[in-house]
Amino acid sequence: MDEEQTGGYSDICGQCGEVNWGVSDEGRFYCRSCHNVIERTKEVVDTNTFMVGTSRVSSISKGTRRKKLEQGREWMVCEGFQFILKHQAEALLAMGVCPQFKDDVLCQFWRMYLQKSRQAYTKNPVHDGKFRLRSQGSGESDSAPESSVMSDSMMSASETDGDGDWASGGGSVSGHTSDGASSVCSGSIDAVSYLTPRQRRSQGLMSMPKTLALCHLALLWAREAITLADLLRFVNEGHIPYVNAYEDFPEEMKLYGRDSLIFRVESIPSYSHLHKEAQALAVFLELPLFPPITLDCLLHPSLLTLRYLTEANLPDELHDWVCRIMEKAGMESSVTFEPMRSRSPLPHYDVQAAALIIIAMKLLFKLDDHTEWDLSNDASDKNKENPDGNSFNLRWWYRTMQTALTTAARRQQDNIARKHWKPQKPLYTSKKDKSVVLKRRRIAEQLQLSFQKLSSSPVAPPSTPPSSFCFRWGEEGEEVWDGPSLHHLTLDSSVRQRGASLQPANPEYWHPALRACKPRFCKSHYAEVEVTLPRMYVWLLDLFSFLLGVKPGCVYEEVLKVERRFLGSSKSQPRARATPRKTQPKKLHKRKQTSKTCSR
Amino acid sequence: MVFGANSHFLLNNLHQIYANENRSNLKRWVMDDLESELRVPGEERGENESSDDDESINIKRIKKPNLPLAPPLFKETPRETGFHKTTRNCLQHIREVLLHHRWQDAAEYMASYSQTLEDTTANMPQLYAEIIWRIGTEILHHHPNSTLEDYNSFYERVKHSGVKHYLKVCLEHSFHLLVNGQFEDAKLQLSIAESWRYGKQSAGQSQRIRLIQAYSGFLDYFIWCDKKATASSTDEYDAAVNQEMHSYFRQSSVNLKEIMKLPGVWDPFVLSYIDMLEFYNDHEGAVKVLNDYAYDDSFPPNPNAHVYLYRYMKKQNHPLKKLLKVLKILHTLVPSHELMPEYCSLLVQSENEGDLQKALGVVLDLLDYSSWRSNLDVWNHLMNIIKRLRMKKQWLKIFAEEMGYRKDWWLAIHFSTFQARKDSAENRELLEVKSFVVGAFCPHYASMYSGVGKAARKGVTSEARKAKRNPKPLKNIRRLRREKGQQSQD
């Protein structure tokens, strides 16, 4: 192995710029790519003399010296995650999250996690070799007294002392012996235990997606206005460190070998994956009831729908209808999360808000590929008759939206194609790979530079400041402009005054069969029913799925869920009428149709 | 550096080979996704749809477009990582901008595509390296601002991105340098490649090394040519220059001899080697090399080998018999070769009895090819041969032998009224010669052919008229037809 012989000599060859040293038979260094011999010879270690009896001694002494040089200080995997969480929290703070978020919420969650997973704040740490076997069996009985400790620390915010606490974490607390770990190739001490099949199955250990899940829970707890979709978008845009987050580790924390399997990130988790992860984590941490989402919190459906109405360039008047639906569905009060109650899943606040808007659109415009266009014709007639009139015209909105959506989708595709994933400091899984990985990194970098020179613009997608909105609607002439704003338009052509209250001009409402499915066995039915749904409805689902970065099926399921509550509640009212439609379009024949007259 | 006309020609050839190879390989990457584009979007709905029979048949038919396309290299998979999605999308974008000739954008995407080299899960890292190599060269070729330095640095990087392509890239790099007149650098590249070793030598590797050595010998030959030119221009005998020339000759000949041992088409190498041998008056050696090159059965059949041999022997005034032997083989390989009229006249010159008949065969073969069909020289040859043959007794037999399998279509193809009109418009002389020939073969046809234009009829020579009176050839043809008719009845 030349790597051994050259002793890690890694200067660049003066002739060809490569780092590919070999040692000739005479012990001279030469470059293996250009055969340039340099003024350096191998340090002669006469191994033969040691081979007889004392080889063990020599190898040990050599080993430790080298370890110290290469390994930096000893550290544990959870420390690494702690650094990443800290950076993520700081990025969130920089975005304007309230200052208590980091120390009072996320830090507390992290400590609870460390305790629950018995990595710190515990008498029998998980990594201590002696305890590992026994504690696997005895399991949960140990955790009972600890949880009281945790709830204490949750209440007393004075215990936390800021940054200093972050830097030294679980590592110092949990006692361990490094004998077993030092023989395995990894920078951290306990990377091996993270990778055993049993530990993986137990799901308790930290992983990169879980850092985001923890952030999400903490944001929810702090009632911050960042939804899960926002969080993922910020991660995607690079405002929150996630891909190659380990690069910010301090110099003395060396990362290699098995660590790379834990910290290497090659994709950003999907919305549904992260949602599941967050829910599981909340249960694992045995978190109590989350603070209620009230009307003064931006996560409340009423405010969140307003935000998405703005985003989707829909008229503000629509918000009244959304609020009415919300009221009917009884969603104003029961919007919080209690992990320990099995019937209270972690709500998708963002998708729920989108579902409310979609239902409001369906209520007003029916969205069956006919009625909405008839209504748009009416609106345009009205606008023609009265030049000052500003009726909302769905066709016009569709066109504006469609143009903006196409551009945005193209931009997104382009950003995906140009996203840079690979780190400046590459990770390698074994020492053998080191030279290969470093060489590849160097070549890729040089190739990138030479092509960058030929291209007209910089390679990285232009970074924009973090924003809650994807689209900009407004008057022409602004810097970033996706189309004219339609927020001020009125819905007067699609609503009728009936008695004292306003009612939609469209008297009917349709929905797919509200069959109950078994959540464990049924996956999304969207793929099956998609072809039978009206195109306009599918387009609307696609629009919101693009805005939120989720699958269309996910929005569809959420719409069904809200419809179930909404229609269930309105059917029980005496004035609501459920009659089958007389004439049904052919392609809808499979679906159970319920049409009802809105009576408000 | 000044080369002779010969070497310039060879360099041009090199350039073409180099460009073509790159093009054809690139096509593989760029055209890959054609199939996916041909697919109809509705098809993805797939089997879930319980549609009526007609529709499902339609879908099936659409599903497999009957095109011989390779399966797409990179497909979207459900468990694809974000990194792979990025690289897949990036390649897709590169492909699009390449097809639209947007080289600047292509360079931009290439910059981000280079990260595929770092793919840790790649099961085919060599493939990524090759894709980058091929597409990168193509972009550099077309990019308005690419410089030779860009090429050099690009080739250097690509060389070290994958072991398997090292030698090929080196060769391509030196070709590129040659095309741009960087002779010394090209030489340097080849010598670097020559001294490169990695692991165990695979079969392909050792062959490529041979090729690289041959090219290096070839470049030595260029230097030799250069020295020769300077030596001859000064007119003074300079021992030092001579010495130098000789050493280049030795270097070059070692490498060139080596490659000629392997079966293959080595035309430029052979020519350069022969040129040097000729200069040093080693004629036997040269003839031996050419003979080996032409007559070794393990080599692929190569008409040029015989052409070179013939030209050299002719230059050295070898006897007619030997020349004829070479041309005879060339005739069997390429009956329409441009040396065939020459072969024909040599056959006519020779005293041998059967040679005149051979000449007739060669000329008739030539006329079967459309490129020779209105060539006056060939028709003149035919006329002369007929004139001489008619004096012999076996004329009819010879005629029947040579015309045997042509009799059905030969007259129709050369002596149609359309052809006559064309000939009379383009080349009156040709019309006359052809009239004579058809008169000799078939006087009945002659009136049809030469009677097209009045002007044409006037030009018919007296000999042709004489031939018209002679009914024998016509009888011959009729007899042949009759025989054939009987055969088919049997």
What does this structure look like?
Chain A: InterPro entries: Rrn7_cyclin_C, Rrn7_cyclin_N, TAF1B/Rrn7, TF_Rrn7_Zf. The complex is a heterodimer of chains A (600) and B (490). Chain A is mainly alpha-helical. Chain A contains 25 helices and 7 strands. In chain A, helix 13 (208-221) packs across helix 16 (271-285). Chain B is an all-alpha fold. Chain B is extended, with a radius of gyration of 32 Å. Chain A binds chain B through residues 16-18, 33-35, 264, 266-268, 413-414, 416-422, 426, 429, 437, 439-441, 443-457, 459, 527-528, 531, and chain B through 45, 48-49, 80-86, 89-90, 92-93, 104-105, 107-112, 114-115, 117-118, 120-121, 132, 136, 139-140, 143, 145-146, 150, 153-154, 156-158, 160-161, 192, 195.
Notable traits:
heterodimer, A: 600 residues, mainly alpha, N-terminal domain of TfIIb, three-stranded antiparallel beta sheet, two-stranded antiparallel sheet, globular, disordered C terminus, B: 490 residues, 71% helix
How would you summarize the topology of this molecule?
The complex is a heterodimer of chains A (600) and B (490).
Chain A: H1 2-6, E1 21-23, E2 28-31, E3 37-41, H2 47-51, H3 55-71, H4 77-94, H5 100-116, H6 129-138, H7 143-155, H8 163-167, H9 170-173, H10 179-182, H11 191-195, H12 197-202, H13 208-221, H14 228-237, H15 259-263, H16 271-285, H17 301-311, H18 318-328, H19 349-365, H20 371-385, H21 394-418, H22 431-454, E4 495-498, E5 501-504, H23 526-529, H24 535-548, H25 552-571, E6 578-579, E7 595-596
Antiparallel strand pairs in A: 1-2, 2-3, 4-5, 6-7
Chain B: H1 5-31, H2 34-38, H3 53-63, H4 82-99, H5 103-113, H6 125-142, H7 148-159, H8 166-179, H9 183-194, H10 203-234, H11 239-261, H12 267-279, H13 283-295, H14 303-315, H15 320-333, H16 340-349, H17 355-367, H18 376-389, H19 395-403, H20 410-414, H21 417-426, H22 428-441, H23 443-450, H24 454-458, H25 462-469, H26 472-489
Helix pairs in contact in B: 1-6, 1-8, 4-5, 5-6, 6-7, 7-8, 8-9, 9-10, 10-11, 10-12, 11-12, 12-13, 13-14, 14-15, 15-16, 16-17, 16-18, 17-18, 18-22, 21-22, 22-23, 22-25
